[in-house]
Amino acid sequence: EDKVVQSPLSLVVHEGDTVTLNCSYEVTNFRSLLWYKQEKKAPTFLFMLTSSGIEKKSGRLSSILDKKELFSILNITATQTGDSAVYLCAVESYSGGGADGLTFGKGTHLIIQP
Amino acid sequence: NAGVTQTPKFQVLKTGQSMTLQCAQDMNHNSMYWYRQDPGMGLRLIYYSASEGTTDKGEVPNGYNVSRLNKREFSLRLESAAPSQTSVYFCASRPSGEKLFFGSGTQLSVL
């Protein structure tokens, strides 16, 4: 059974701080790892990672994948109150059946205090 | 371009009632999914469909049925609702191997 573990489950920091969110996984046939941000409603896509060691960046957010150690991190620098959200990690395994499985972690609830 | 459209947005049921959650996507995606989200549990897969006419069970299928009516539509049915099915339900779709596109969610309460 595929497993995705995120840590910490919740985190409270002050505006301007840098945070690192963790995602470790155990899947049989790894295909990709995805990060989503969820505020009040549907998750919104942040990054998709398939190759080890290549950092993806978007503004103050960045993410990197380590396929040898089976984890990914999501960094947010100079945090703002608008970064407050639940951050979800999902891992895709290739089943060969077509609708490849995506397993989500429980999420990290990030709160940015002004 | 509407993306993934879910209806209804909110629903309250009594135990034992039945209902169908509707989902449609206009992006010509082959794969469609139904997830439920409970506090502290992340997103858990109920059913998915690789293509029109095929469906498969996910992690938590008990108490649910699905229909992939055509390429656009993937519905989720609760035949006899139970309080344990109180949750937020998300439909999603995607092209194979790409990111998921989510609907806006259905908040369901079963009393």
Write a brief structural summary.
Chain A has 114 residues and is mainly β. Chain A has strands at residues 3-7, 10-14, 19-26, 30-38, 44-49, 56-58, 61-66, 71-76, 85-93, 101-104, 108-113.
List the helices and strands and how they pair.
The complex is a heterodimer of chains A (114) and B (111).
Chain A: E1 3-7, E2 10-14, E3 19-26, E4 30-38, E5 44-49, E6 56-58, E7 61-66, E8 71-76, E9 85-93, E10 101-104, E11 108-113
Parallel strand pairs in A: 2-11
Antiparallel strand pairs in A: 1-3, 3-8, 4-5, 4-9, 6-7, 7-8, 9-10, 9-11
Chain B: E1 4-7, E2 10-13, E3 19-25, E4 31-37, E5 43-49, E6 56-57, E7 64-68, E8 74-78, E9 87-94, E10 101-102, E11 106-110
Parallel strand pairs in B: 2-11
Antiparallel strand pairs in B: 1-3, 3-8, 4-5, 4-9, 5-6, 7-8, 9-10, 9-11
Descriptive keywords:
heterodimer; A: 114 residues; mainly beta; 6-stranded mixed sheet; 5-stranded antiparallel sheet; 11 strands; 0% helix; 59% strand; globular; B: 111 residues; 7-stranded mixed sheet; 4-stranded antiparallel sheet; 50% strand
Architecture overview:
The complex is a heterodimer of chains A (114) and B (111). Chain A has 114 residues and is mostly beta strands. Chain A contains no helices and 11 strands. Chain A has strands spanning 3-7, 10-14, 19-26, 30-38, 44-49, 56-58, 61-66, 71-76, 85-93, 101-104, 108-113. In chain A, strands 2, 4, 5, 9, 10 and 11 form a 6-stranded mixed β-sheet that branches. A 5-stranded antiparallel β-sheet of chain A has the order 1-3-8-7-6, with no helix packed on it. In chain A, a hairpin with a 2-residue loop joins strand 6 (56-58) and strand 7. The N and C termini of chain A lie far apart (41 Å). Chain B has 111 residues and is mainly beta. Chain B contains no helices and 11 strands. In chain B, the strands form 2 sheets. In chain B, strands 2, 4, 5, 6, 9, 10 and 11 form a 7-stranded mixed β-sheet that branches. In chain B, strands 1-3-8-7 form a 4-stranded antiparallel β-sheet, with no helix packed on it. In chain B, a hairpin with a 6-residue loop joins strand 9 (87-94) and strand 10. The N and C termini of chain B lie far apart (36 Å).
